[in-house]
Amino acid sequence: EERESKEPAMNPFQKNESKETLFSPVSTEEVPPQPISLPKKPPPKICGSNYPLSIAFIVVNEFCERFSYYGMKAVLTLYFLYFLHWNEDTSTSIYHAFSSLCYFTPILGAAIADSWLGKFKTIIYLSLVYVLGHVVKSLGALPILGGQMVHTVLSLVGLSLIALGTGGIKPCVAAFGGDQFEEKHAEERTRYFSVFYLSINAGSLISTFITPMLRGDVQCFGEDCYALAFGVPGLLMVIALVVFAMGSKIYRKPPPEGNIVTQVVKCIWFAISNRFNNRSGDIPKRQHWLDWAAEKYPKQLIMDVKALTRVLFLYIPLPMFWALLDQQGSRWTLQATRMNGNLGVFVLQPDQMQVLNPLLVLIFIPLFDLVIYRLVSKCGINLSSLRKMAVGMILASLAFAVAAAVEIKINRMTPLQPGPQEIFLQVLNLADDEVKVTVLGDENSTLLEESIRSFQKMPYYAQLHLKTKSQDSHFYLKYHNMSVYTKHSVEEKNWYSLIIREDGKNISSKMVKDEESKTTNGMTAVRFVNTLHKEVNISLATDIFLSVGEDYGVSAYTTVQSGEYPAVHCRTEDKDFSLNMGLLDFGTTYLFVVTNSTNQGPQAWKMKDIPANKLSIAWQLPQYALVTAGEVMFSVTGLEFSYSQAPSSMKSVLQAAWLLTVAVGNIIVLVVAQFSGLVQWAEFILFSCLLLVVCLIFSIMGYYYVPIKPEDLQKPADKQIPHTQENMINLETKKTKL
């Protein structure tokens, strides 16, 4: 991107570089004197240095924009899962479809900037689209605004606008900053790009840490505050736009200079179509298939495209690496929801684990450059660029093998899910004495038999098999000298709680369907059973209220912050009282029974429905370290190698192709998530093995690749245009014979 500002000098299609300006006809007529042009006033500098003041606006703009993008993206998967209530596969697919679109649209943004509006206007206009997308996305996260369909439509429209905005300005901002420097200040421009990319990492690092806190630590409308988590990044994008516009009067604004990507595509297409039209055996073959473009395009451009295609051939296997790398925000975040985020000092939200990637990138880049690569070199190992990229692929593959091992460990520590024609049942005895519960099957056979003491529950969920998808289950309850037969309707793949209660001198039962998501949310959740004869209103926090019906009414599960709850305010129609709920652990699901069996007033009897996630979220650290090390070796080295192997006029084409590999990688994840049907650990193993196979193919391609020396790219090429020479070959396109 830094060298894009030099492209105009090498672009053979610029109209203002006509040879008529070099060889003008001599005229005997008097030429009127030209007016003297006064030198332009130099742009203001920063503190007397050679750095233009305008780059300060651009760097701040980039920091705010990256904060906006990565902050919004950090909470996106959990928003799909818990707010829009999509399943994990759909959430993953839409997440990667959005990521893919963000890497397709830079080609559109570059075309608009280079061929029509110029970089400045493109950034302004598409930033407005960007801001509009954030506004729509934030509105889609307001629970009070419409129903499920409205939220879904607003979310998808908002994400589409954001993808157009962020992708459209991506190729323009860095290059526009480079345009602010004069050619004699090349060293300052290089340092500017270092600061520019530092601002990208800083924005990503800070936002990935802060926005999950806005989502999880702040409650609005009685649940996680996704509207705030999306609104703050939107506000940062407004600031980015305002700051960028403030520097309008001091920017250098080069006019549109033509899109080299379009020229390359046209050149390749003409060569292919021309070769197809002239496939007769009478026409002599040419040394290279791109030589068939010689009738229309200059030799220099054809030579540059030849060098470009050699590098693009090596790009074919690259999307698989991005398919693995970009799952940090989707599959790995979903994995973190089933782990314990309590690290003792603080509680880490599942989507906050993504902060490890930018943090480790900042650590690993100098570590690899200054230590690891030098040690490897001193050991006599020639670690070429292609070898570094292959090692990066292997590290990413190992990261997913580790992720699969962690997933298997999680599955062993979490309760099983009921399958087809199965239910999970627990029994809760709220009577004043022991009750013997028997679940009856066909011909009064015993499926389950348990004796449960007063105010106790079964220590586990019992797995019961059904004959159909839904049926009536029959229960035999023995209490004192009484026997009670009852039945309740159940449906497959669900969790149920059978609540036994006193009914005068007799007992009765109530079947309650438990929420499926209570074991996968990873957050602290509570529900209440009210044994009082009056409705109870419970205030769990300043913005979390719930009502529990009288006479054994059961509330839904409500997520709360972990911590101490010594005095929770409650209210009935005639009195106020407080309940001591004690310490609520992270990731635990609790059941509280509100009773009034003593003279001390209403009290809460506490039980754990689902124990806390036992596996610490810190077990994800090895996989993040491996995949980030792979990213440093693959991504940084890949771009550096690509730029060294192609002419400077092709740099922007290489950047576009590199972004396209990222887009294709996200499409691979989308397809696998939707159609593989594998359990999660097996899917991780699949990606790990696929990348190993791709790494092998890439290594073979790299073995036969002959690197071009940089000085070979700088040799002057013959500028003659073939079709102006007398010895040209006339083809069928000219309607003549050889």
TrEMBL record:
Database matches in CDD domains: MFS_SLC15A1_2_like
Gene3D superfamilies: MFS general substrate transporter like domains
Transmembrane segments: 67-87, 93-113, 125-146, 152-173, 194-214, 226-246, 307-325, 355-376, 388-406, 656-678, 684-706
Entries under Pfam families matching the protein: PTR2
GO cellular component: a single term: apical plasma membrane
Reaction equations catalysed: glycyl-L-lysine(out) + 2 H(+)(out) = glycyl-L-lysine(in) + 2 H(+)(in); carnosine(out) + 2 H(+)(out) = carnosine(in) + 2 H(+)(in); a dipeptide(out) + 2 H(+)(out) = a dipeptide(in) + 2 H(+)(in); L-alanyl-L-alanine(out) + 2 H(+)(out) = L-alanyl-L-alanine(in) + 2 H(+)(in)
Chain residue ranges for the region called Disordered: 1-37
UniProt key word Protein biosynthesis: no
GO biological process, one term: dipeptide import across plasma membrane
Free-text function comment from the UniProt entry: Proton-coupled amino-acid transporter that transports oligopeptides of 2 to 4 amino acids with a preference for dipeptides. Transports neutral and anionic dipeptides with a proton to peptide stoichiometry of 2:1 or 3:1. In kidney, involved in the absorption of circulating di- and tripeptides from the glomerular filtrate. Can also transport beta-lactam antibiotics, such as the aminocephalosporin cefadroxil, and other antiviral and anticancer drugs. Transports the dipeptide-like aminopeptidase inhibitor bestatin. Also able to transport carnosine.
Quaternary structure and interacting proteins, as annotated: Interacts (via extracellular domain region) with trypsin.
Family: Belongs to the major facilitator superfamily. Proton-dependent oligopeptide transporter (POT/PTR) (TC 2.A.17) family.
Protein name: Solute carrier family 15 member 2
Organism for this UniProt entry: Crocuta crocuta (Spotted hyena)
Gene: Slc15a2
